[in-house]
Amino acid sequence: MDTDNPLDFVDILLVHLKEGDAESRLTMEQVLYELEDFIGGHSAVANLLVRALIEIAGVPGLSQKIYETVRGDSSSESFSTIEALYYKQLLHVEYDT
Q1: Which of 2, 6, 24, 52 is the Cys-Cys partner for 11 at CB 3.0 to 4.6 Å?
Q2: Integer angstrom CA distances of residue 53 from 61, 62, 63
Q3: Are residues 47 and 10 in the same domain?
């Protein structure tokens, strides 16, 4: 590994593990924690997106309704209606729980 030209996130972590002054040097435990957090965080977001797509795909016509709602082409609901429902739901969660 060329410590003067790290290629990716792992290289940067390894540079901080091996070199630098005592204040900027990372321990192996810190490096492993950063890697777990980086990989785990991305995995959680990816899992959430895949789960959402599976749910959308399982309901006929839902993807079209979402598209129309986001684009503003839907005659049944406007963005302001959805926004109002969202805030109503937030109030419900905040004050009723």
Answers
A1: 6
A2: 13, 11, 9
A3: yes
The interaxial angle of helices 28-57 and 9-18, nearest 10 deg, is: 160
State whether 64 and 53 are in the same domain. no
pTM over 0.90: no
Residues 65 and 83 in one domain: yes
Mean pLDDT of the chain: 75
Q: How far apart are CA 20 and CA 6, in angstroms?
A: 14
CA distances from 83 to 24, 48, 72 (A): 46, 22, 13
| Residues spanned by the domain of 29 | 1-58
Measured from the Cβ of residue 15, the count of other Cβ atoms closer than 10 Å reads 19
Indicate if 52 and 17 belong to the same structural domain: yes
The sign of the dihedral angle between the CA atoms of 21, 17, 8, 50 is negative
